[in-house]
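user: can you give me the structure for this one chain? tokens are fine.
assistant: on it. calling the predictor now.
[tool input]
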Amino acid sequence: MIKQNVNLGDRTYPIYIETDYGSIEKCLESAKISGTIVVITDSNVDKFQCADLMSALESCKNPVYKYVIDAGEKSKNLMTIQKIYQYLMSLKLDRKATLVALGGGVVGDITGFAAATFLRGINFVQVPTTLLAQADSSVGGKVGVDFEGSKNIIGSFYQPKFVYINVNSLKTLPERELKAGLAEVVKHGIILDMEFFEYIDDNIDKIFKVNEDVMKYLTKVNCSIKAGIVEKDEKENGLREILNFGHTIGHAIESVMNFELLHGECIAIGFVGAFKLAGYMGMVNASELEKVISLLKKAGLPVRLEGLDVDRVYKQMFYDKKIKDNKLTFILPKSIGGVLQLIVDDEQLIKKVLGELR
């Protein structure tokens, strides 16, 4: 087992990286979790992962229940949260109860938000089963839901008791989901670590084969990068915003497309947009953009979107959480391995870049 901590004072918690669910009971004991456990998962993950996890939890002294939501981003709303509350109330839970999120980013965000708000806060454990969630969303305590077409507009910061990553859960992922998750992995290389970017490039075939050693290393580096940023800026008041590289454009595309594209697919297009914007501002040269486009294509990720509606995407960008004084804030590259946060108040230039993403 690989273990590393997210150091947040009295909210410090471990991330465990494993190859099965066999150690989760010991992790629960270490976290001093003693109440009822409710595993929340989705209809896809339930078919492939839930039986193994529930079997691993059988020897726990705690009562264990399961609640299944419909798979997909369209479940990430307040109606789903309401149904979860109703189920939790039917169990007559107390504040010692623990919600375990078994799934990808949608399940993790929904479960964390329910845990943060039910009885004013109960225990929460992340068991991410997608590459996107293992690389990014399961670490850092961002929880929430979409609202009226805007991504993650309602939410909170609520840290889990621990994160338990079974890298072999990725073997049950559809190829499209694995590719989409790679976008967040590539992002970490772009924002902070050129050597990691090159490692991904060199090992792309092994990643698609879910090679255990490669995936454990990939997960360890991803979690280390994410944890290091969260430790310095837990509630996104500064440094943590660099994790939104590609997301200003990406989230807007995701919303405008009514979540028909996966999150990773949208932010990959956003990466290209950010490099193009930085290029026009004299911050990076064309060769850097070409390296990024080359890796994204190797990863099977889109670098443009046919028929992109420039005006709609531009307007949707103003619902971004980084907006300041009604001006768009972008995370822009200085190079592969370094980024800056900048306000860009040039509608013509931004729309030009969006037009080039069509």
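assistant: here you go. The chain has two domains: 2-173, 181-356. Residues 181-356 form a domain with the Dehydroquinate synthase-like, alpha domain fold (CATH 1.20.1090.10).
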